[in-house]
TrEMBL record:
It comes from Paenibacillus agri. Residues 101-297 form the HD-GYP domain. InterPro entries: HD/PDEase_dom, HD_GYP_dom. It holds the Pfam family HD_5. This is HD-GYP domain-containing protein.
Length: 340
């Protein structure tokens, strides 16, 4: 294999690619994955700089996440029209998972978050988003590489059971009736069965589809189990699922501001979400806000300069000549982070 091509992973092809015999290999504008590079090398093609476009972070995130979303839609469609309801794992492993790993390697949380904002494809983009966010969180929790790979697949498939839920319930523009909600809740058991029955997955991954709506205090569904019976994978995916749902525009409500979402999640730590995993998530997200402008409840604006590990949502803020420690000034809070 020609390893010199590997430096082009994550770059975009300028034009249609043909081998020396004129056989068509890949179309123009393909975002190159490790799988594409293997294919190119099998055709004994040596790429050159003129063959590719170097994308900046924002463009790379947008194209990679859009491509993954399109691939997820294709995977859902294949399952929908396949009587056996088997998940096409080869397509998932080739067209979605490599890009999720590439995106998370860049560790630019806000760049990633901007590209995850759904257009009119929330159902598919949400699966990719939860795959990316769960992989980031798994890295922050210092998971072993083999566990992290399993988590990425489990998180990307967490909502696969929604294929079995009628589209008019999934895309309803208002709140669900009690009867509709009972049908919606079945996506967890459908998903469990589908992942369990797919060759190349394991029980831990199937449990994520089943348990991602379970809560530590037993208030979740489908079985209302308590925290000690919820797997770590499921606890991670639950946090990322909630976070992406709350920070996205949906059919029936607008996205909530990021800081407000984190505040609500911190309140959910008491009972609903795993406290340790949620703390790590909030802490890392706040760390990535250092240097951002924020608007305070008293109308002033300042810049976050330090996150305090004992109270990550109440950082040290620079206001001109002054520094305000929000962990000590409990009567003042952050209204919102001002986009850069």
């Amino acid at each position: 294999m020609n390893n010199s091509n590997e430096e082009y992973i994550g770059k975009q092809l300028v034009a249609n690619l043909f081998n020396s015999k004129g056989v068509f290999v890949l179309p123009a504008m393909t975002l190159l994955s490790a799988e594409h590079i293997r294919l190119i090398s099998q055709h004994k093609i040596a790429l050159e700089e003129k063959d590719v476009i170097h994308l900046d972070g924002a463009a790379f995130f947008q194209i990679a996440i859009d491509d993954c979303t399109t691939a997820m839609e294709s995977i859902f469609e294949q399952i929908r029209y396949n009587k056996s309801k088997r998940i096409p794992m080869i397509e998932l492993r080739n067209e979605v998972i490599p890009f999720i790993h590439q995106v998370t390697e860049k560790n630019d949380f806000y760049g990633i978050l901007a590209a995850l904002q759904s257009k009119d494809d929330y159902t598919y983009r949400h699966n990719v988003a939860v795959g990316i966010l769960s992989t980031l969180l798994g890295k922050w929790l210092k998971m072993k590489p083999e566990d992290l790979s399993q988590l990425t697949i489990a998180a990307t498939l967490h909502d696969i059971g929604k294929i079995m839920v009628p589209a008019e319930i999934l895309t309803k523009p208002g709140p669900l009736s009690e009867e509709e909600f009972q049908i919606m809740k079945k996506h967890t058991t459908y998903g469990y069965e589908m992942v369990r029955d797919t060759v190349g997955t394991n029980h831990n991954q199937a449990l994520v589809a089943l348990q991602h709506h379970e809560r530590m205090d037993g208030s979740g569904y489908p079985f209302g189990v308590l925290g000690h019976r919820i797997t770590d994978f499921s606890k991670i995916v639950a946090i990322c699922d909630i976070f992406h749902a709350m920070t996205s525009d949906r059919f029936y409500r607008k996205a909530s501001p990021l800081y407000e979402v984190l505040t609500q999640m911190e309140e959910s730590v008491y009972g609903k979400l795993d406290p340790y995993i949620c703390r790590v998530f909030i802490d890392k997200l706040m760390q990535s806000m250092i240097g951002n402008e924020v608007e305070l409840t008293d109308g002033r604006t300042g810049r976050i300069v330090m996150i305090l590990s004992h109270d990550p949502l109440r950082p040290l803020v620079n206001l001109g000549e002054d520094f305000l420690d929000l962990s000590k000034q409990r009567n003042i809070g952050i209204v919102r982070v001002i986009p850069q």
